[in-house]
Amino acid sequence: MSYVIGVDCGTSGTKTVLFREDGTPLSSVTIEYPMYQPKNGYAEQDPLDWKNAMLQSMGQVIAKSGIPKEEIKGIGISGQMHGLVMLDKDGNVLRKSIIWCDQRTAAEVDDMNRIVGQEKLMGITANPALTGWTASKILWVRKNEPEIYEKCRHILLPKDYLRYVLTGEFATEVSDASGMQLLDVGKRDWSDELLRLLEIDKNLLGKVYESCEVTGTLKPEIAAQLGLSEKTIVVGGAGDNAAAAVGTGVVTDGKAFTTIGTSGVVFAHTSTMAIDPKGRVHTCCAAMPNSWHVMGVTQGAGLSLKWFRDNFCDAEKQTAKYMGIDEYYLMDKEAEQVPVGANRLLYLPYLMGERTPHLDADARGVFFGLSAMHTKRDMLRAVLEGVTYSLRDCVEVFREMEIQVDDMMACGGGGTSPLWRSMLADLYHCPVKTLASKEGPALGVGILAAVGAGIYSSVPEACQAIVKADKIQSPCEKNVPIYEHYYQLYREIYPALQTQFGKLAQLQ
User: From CA 279, how far away is CA 150, in angstroms rounded?
Assistant: First the structure.
């Protein structure tokens, strides 16, 4: 029997899981760490916290297992995307990492658009210049901390710093590198033209691999510390969403997944690179060779339901506590009593502005059609339906790009709701499945490690053997046309209010 390790370096903590070659998790450890916000809009973490969390969690899962070290064949690392890690000539961290949610780089985004041009940037990187992505952070450090930039000899992403810790190799892979805005996403390598225009030395960047390729083996001292063989391979790994795609089996055309967490993500695989010229969805290299993925994001998905719960559902909270059950279960049961369309009540989930498809920070939440007949239950169902309409918006952009979806996985907290899954199935008009495994990105990079170690010959073969569906929700054919009418009306509301959202934002 062979075994692999999946490491997921997230924002709140690093999770390490030891898997059997068939994907069965044997042990799992998560170690948390802080985020620092020295100013409004800033977000940083200490790479040494990631290092310590990885080494401690790996050491614990290996020690628990009692498995001979020679049988643990490979390691895959997933990580939060877009973070900037800067090392000096000796491999020492020069400053805290500026992470994905940091918003300090608006001026640098303007610089990128001016120097490169929006059209050329889209053509090379497949995405518009964005404050959260890595290139603008590099420019910010060069402009605002020139003494640190002068000492910098290596630029890595969060998971790639952990790779360096394990192997001593300065490397990355295509899915995570796509989020730096320095990669030619079509050619799957650094863009010499972009680096020249932005005056960034290519030697600062690591070698680019495919996600399932072997990037190195463990350093002797790390192998001894962890109780592993020096022959244990480390593969390219993947950015968090690309790793989740592998972990959910979304590695062939027609497959996609929806994650309903605080925000909502719809993620689809494509073997043909496709770019949305309006920049409404992101296009990146997939963790499958010669493949890409597109990703739409709605800002206020699970956030909308949490907001409604916190402000209007004290009775449900108290009842759930008394009964020893989840308050969201009770909320689901109440919403089930309301017919499709929430008695002609619609909700726009733009509590935090919107990304896909509107790219409007001024957009705000709306209940449309509210009347004296409506109850809290109607409003609750309208919230669930409104979030689902916003996720359907993402799928509609995919269809404009000629990316079809006929096989959908549901993940995240919202994916556990049978009612929400039924809404997704009806509005996507395709079956919506949940997974037997809940390990997500850690399983995804574990699968990549298994391919790199030769346990499986390809990523699709590994996913077919390992990824299993748990529940399958088919569309209710009588609901599909009803939802379609409501969805088409929903699509008309934002354009009618767009100007007014902007005016509202200007009011004191």
Answer: 34
Residue 457 vs residues 126, 244, 285, 462, 468: alpha-carbon distances, Å? 30, 20, 20, 8, 19
Q: Is 394 helix (H, G, I), strand (E, B) or coil?
A: helix
Strand-pairing partners, residue 156, are 85
pLDDT at 210: 98
In the DSSP assignment, the letter for residue 203 is G
> Which pair of tokens denotes residue 47?
């790479």
Residues whose CB falls within 8 Å of the CB of residue 73, separated by 6 or more in sequence, listed in order: 2, 3, 4, 232, 233, 449, 450, 453, 454, 455
Q: Is the peptide bond before 357 cis (omega within 30 degrees of 0)?
A: yes
- The type of residue at 378 is D
Query: Per-residue pLDDT averaged across 485-503, rounded?
Result: 97
Residue pair 58/442 in contact (Cβ under 8 Å)? The answer is: no
The answer to whether the beta carbons of residues 208 and 275 sit under 8 Å apart is no
pLDDT tens-place string over residues 458-474: 999 999 999 998 899 99
pLDDT at 4: 98
The backbone region for 41, taken as left when phi is positive above 0, alpha when psi lies in -120 to 50, beta otherwise, is left
Distance CA 27, CA 115 (A): 49
Q: For residue 225, what are its two tokens?
A: 């510390």
Residue with tokens 């449900």: 316
**pLDDT of residue 440 exceeding 90:** no
Active site members: 240
Q: What is the 3-state secondary structure (H, E, C) of 21-62?
A: CCCCEEEEEEEECCCECCCCCCCEECHHHHHHHHHHHHHHHH
- DSSP 8-state secondary structure symbol assigned to residue 219: -
Q: How many residues does the chain have?
A: 508
Tokens representing 221 are: 């001292």
Q: Roughly what angle, to the nearest 10 degrees, separates helices 301-312 and 327-336?
A: 90
